[in-house]
Amino acid sequence: MKKIINQTDDIIEEMLRGLSASYPGLVHRIEDSRVIAKNENKKQVALVSGGGSGHEPSHAGFVGDGMLSAAVAGDVFTSPTPDQIQIAMQEADQGEGVLLIVKNYTGDNLNFEMAQEMAEMDDIQSKIVVVDDDIAVEDSEFTAGKRGVAGTVLVHKILGNAARSGASLDELKQLGDDVVKKIKTIGLALHAATVPEVGKPGFELAEDEIEYGVGIHGEAGYRREKLQPSKDLAKELVSKILSDYDKQPQKMGVLVNGMGGTPLMEQFIFMNDVLNLLKEQNIEVTFHKVGNYMTSLDMKGVSLTLIDLEDETIKEALESEVTTISW
Amino acid sequence: MKKIINQTDDIIEEMLRGLSASYPGLVHRIEDSRVIAKNENKKQVALVSGGGSGHEPSHAGFVGDGMLSAAVAGDVFTSPTPDQIQIAMQEADQGEGVLLIVKNYTGDNLNFEMAQEMAEMDDIQSKIVVVDDDIAVEDSEFTAGKRGVAGTVLVHKILGNAARSGASLDELKQLGDDVVKKIKTIGLALHAATVPEVGKPGFELAEDEIEYGVGIHGEAGYRREKLQPSKDLAKELVSKILSDYDKQPQKMGVLVNGMGGTPLMEQFIFMNDVLNLLKEQNIEVTFHKVGNYMTSLDMKGVSLTLIDLEDETIKEALESEVTTISW
Description:
kinase (chains A, B); 327 residues; alpha/beta
């Protein structure tokens, strides 16, 4: 295993130190915790998210005005503990309640729910929005139902904008549940990630092989086959996602997300193919985003997220100004 | 070779299409060219940069208000041709002249100078600032003297701010030459990049081996050795860079740059080690940046750039607001 690290036990601690020291004007770390919080808190419902580490810039990169109030980092590919989530909630709460945005994994669901109960004893009201945008497979290694992946970043943005505009906790919960239904994602991998503590890739693909539908922790996808040209990869993902909508939206947003080891050059080529296919379907793309947003350590691959943007206010929320490290 | 591409001949064309289609509100592509230009041109000296492709988001990602007016993309690791550079200059010029920011490679120097002569026939005044921040080696595979690498992005930012503020062509040339002297970079590689047309990694490193001083086209560095902990890698680069300054600056900026295949997690850990070392030296770090800015396709590795920020106006220039895809 070749990684720029020191001791594997110190990875999260040192990463959080490096991150918080690099953006002192924007965020700070709650001392002795796994929590990154924004410096300026306005009176609004607080948004807290988090999950296992290894998906950087998720979630700390999305802490800031117009997005998250705080983010909690677990160990690599491991849910943060309830006490750490509670610290984030205590820090973030401005008396208006806390909305928790959770990717749909069994461990995360349990720990965020437990944190919610603990926070209730602090008189912090909260609700949970569970993101399950990954339509590749039903039920998976760490998940009942669908997994939560890159679409989560769009949920951060849309709810962050609403929270800043004064939406109540109930309104945010409703909006979140509605928005999650509009978002669908599938990923594909060319090469698996290596978890530092394990020291070797999570799965093996042959020299000319890819896997469709791999999860962001290397969970199994739905098909392996020989590597195809980008336009054929795009065709597979676009058609699978579009056919999952009850009614094909006429206006959509596109997020092409790099998995950590995939150069931007390839992400732009893939985006070009995706846009050509959507044009053929007469779908107007009114929002675009390309880059590494929800990674899987050094995995090579991309995910494609589509979001129904027929509701113009959702598009405006995605386009609103934010002050974060990574949006 | 596993890459998300179609035909290797179409890589640059499709990348530029994907990029320009993804940010229509910010930049556009000059038809039938390799040029990405900003949508809104104000009356100011225009800044044009470019170079071989494979370093994304450089340079198109830095086109926008407060940075570059236009960027020209060559083939992978190959200088753009003079006629393409000329197109960028024609598009960018607002009658105040064009400053060309060129990384120090023989091909780039030749082609940008030729473009300069061609533009002169169009009555476009221009000057060139050559960036040679890579102190790892003197003379290299494609370079006489030192190579130009990640520090170029800081030059874009500092000169972009000055140009927007109304600096003249002569003033920008002077400022550029001064600033370049303040910036020093060294990279290291864990794994070489694979040029699509070649199909295999540019060099081979053993399972436990790294190379210090590798260039962004895989040019040889100055030493190979076994992979060390991040803090030892940081120590090597920090001490080598600091000792290259005639007088050690008391205030500095730090750019930790990922080479394309290196996760952000590792970049933050490396940044943490760099900051610890600078603190030991009583150097105050007043500007930080971490991420993939000057990549080398899918190379695994990082580069460290330090900039002397004792002149407060340089720090302010780095912190000024910009509207670009990738700053």
